[in-house]
Structures are given as structure tokens and as C-alpha cells.
What does this fold into?
Amino acid sequence: MSTASGTVTVSYSRGDAVATILIDRESKLNALTLELLRDLENACTEVENSRARVVVVRTAGTRVFCVGADITHFADLEAVAMWSEWIATGHRSFDRLAKLKQPTVAIVDGLALGGGLELALACDMRVLGSTAKVGLPEAGLGTVPGWGGTGRLVDLIGRSRALEMMLTRRQLSAEESLAWGVANRTAAPEELETALDDLLDDLLKSAPLASQLIKQIVDSGIAGGTTSTLEAIAGGFVSTSSDLREGISAFREKRTPTFTGA
It folds into this structure.
């Protein structure tokens, strides 16, 4: 699937048992646009209806997994558009990924920030390269995580650590990610594909229907609807704030923002 701002493609391997969704906008550090989010949703529909037993999510290049939302695409949105289109599309796309019947694995090589980490969190498991770093730095821009990060990160690592990451804009190394529970496995960059293959070997040894039912049972006990709603409201609210305008200006001018709390 091709768009003017990048591509999302689906390929199959291991006798169609493994589907790989590739997001390619390498020239823009794989920053996400509405078009890419919609194409991701369509890709999820394709792989769910395929013979694939496991789904791998990856992005183009090795330096950056994904820097998150493309700021130039949302910086000038009004509150209603931010709430009803930008945040809603991200929620719908990432929820579609999270609710796939097949187990999903994100392979993260490089930076995964903001919506990039939220993309990885929407997968069931994450394999990180040893040089990878992950974080939700939105508060430093004057906004909030908007695509499920507040709920999924808390579910994964607990409230206290999730708050520390979000409120201090802390970026976890691959080693810290493994210790905190963000990563399932880590490997040196040159061994990342081998680590992924080893995990796929293990996953494919389990009965497909049993794996899908286990995933559904586990997911039924995780609460995410409330936080998604609150993220949408909060994102729309801060879209009109002086702090967000200051954060965006500082980002563009490569300076430290001065926030006023307004």
C-alpha cells in the first residue's frame, strides 16, 4: 500500500506462517501520518484474514524505529480535528493492531519515541536492538501521549515506572527496557534477526488456535477503553494551549521551551 508520505507493505515467509508489516518512511525517520495510520489499519485487516500465525511489525532503516507522530501534520489542528481525526485515527489503527488474533512482535532497532513506542506497545512482544532507546517524551512538547501509550505502558510496567517515564521524559536503554518489562528480548544489532527468528521458532511451536485463545483471554483482563477516551479528551484540550504552541516553536527553533502552564 503506497501513500505520498510513505508506504505500508505486507509480506509473508515461513510458508505464509509469518506475516511482516513494514512501515517505510525512512527519509522522515518513519514519522507517522494519517495516511500511514490508515494503511496500517488496512494491513492488519489483510493479515488477520491470512494464513499467518504470527505477525511481525517493523520499520525501514536501522537508526530509528519510529519518532512518533509527524509534528508538521498536527501542529496546526484545531481541538475538534485533533480529537475526532488525528487521535481517533491513531487509536483505531493501534487498537486494530493490538486486537489481531495472531501474536504480534515488534522488532525495534534504534529510537522508538512517542507514537513510535506506542506502536511497539500495541504489539504483544518486543525485541530490541542493544542500541535502541524508547520513551514517551510528549510532556516536553507540551502535550500528552495520544495513541494508547498511557494505558498500555501502565499495563506493561506499572503506574509508578510509567509515570516516571512520561513525566521526566526518560528514555530507556535496551537493557533498562528488558529489566523494566518493556522488552521481551534484546540483542546486538547484528544479531537482532537471529533473536527474532528464535522467538518466532518458539511461537510457531504452539498450536495456533490455543495461542489465539490465550491471547484473547489475557486481553480480556486488560482495561484500556477508559484511558483511550481520556487521551482523546486531553489531546484535544492541550491542542489549544500556549504550552503546546511554545513546545512546537521550540522544537522548530531547536531551543529549550519555556512553559507557563497555560
